[in-house]
Specification:
Distance between the termini: 26 Å
Oligomer: single chain
Strand order of the largest sheet: 7-6-5-4-3-2-1-8
CATH architecture: Alpha-Beta Barrel
CATH topology: TIM Barrel
Number of helices: 10
Radius of gyration: 16 Å
Number of strands: 8
């Protein structure tokens, strides 16, 4: 698939689920992935921080095999090489990862996401060729530690009007506070434990998708 095709699918997405097996409530990552896909989620990030390369590749490859090409997107956290090796649709880069411009040279057809914690980082990522930027962590979160701590939902209002690429929001977003980010224009909302540790993964994903879309029916 071309980058344009991938970005069209990204634009049609709503909930962006980040899956790490250690945050899957004792279930396998694949079990959670299947439930998320069954809920209609089209934006999936594979994130495993502490795996050796061979194991990381094997696990990412198993994700690729379960995600229907053209129906949902597979984004690999941090690793451009792994994303390319398994035929993923994109990579998500943090501030300490490979620079966006370098990743774009290596992988011109991949979606490249970039984490940002302030307007300077978001605009720099956009200028460097990012496909989307993530704003966060919006609220306090157990899944990621950054020097800024929680940046608050008002940062969305400060950054979003200055972007000409899509943005996602992430960090401590749950059913009870998702309205605070959608009210500020967020249409692609990233979550981890709100879905992956839920007793019913599919139901949790559907509930959050409804909240993003503002409709009682999907």
């Amino acid at each position: 698939m071309t980058r344009a095709g991938r970005m069209a699918l990204f634009g049609a997405g709503d909930l962006y689920v980040v899956i790490t097996e250690s945050f899957c409530g004792g279930r396998s990552a694949i079990e959670v992935l299947d439930a998320v896909l069954d809920a209609g989620v089209r934006l999936i990030q594979f994130r495993e921080k502490d795996r050796e390369d061979a194991e990381l590749f094997r696990r990412a490859e198993s994700f690729r095999a379960r995600i229907p090409e053209g129906k949902a997107l597979l984004i690999v956290d941090d690793r451009v090489d792994v994303a390319l090796a398994v035929g993923a649709d994109g990579v998500h880069l943090g501030q300490s990862d490979l620079p966006v411009a370098a990743a774009r040279r290596i992988a011109p057809e991949l979606i490249i996401g970039a984490s940002s914690h302030n307007p300077v980082e978001a605009l720099a990522a956009q200028d460097a060729g990012a496909s989307y930027v993530n704003i966060g962590p919006i609220f306090a979160t157990q899944t990621k530690t950054v020097p800024t701590g929680a940046v608050g939902p008002d940062l969305i209002s400060a950054i979003a009007p200055r972007l000409h690429i899509p943005f996602t929001c992430m960090g401590g977003i749950k059913a009870h506070n998702i309205g605070e980010v959608t009210a500020r224009g967020a249409r692609h909302v990233a979550v981890v434990t709100a879905v992956t540790e839920a007793p019913d993964v599919r139901a949790a994903a559907i509930e959050l998708r409804k909240a993003i879309r503002g409709t009682a029916r999907l």
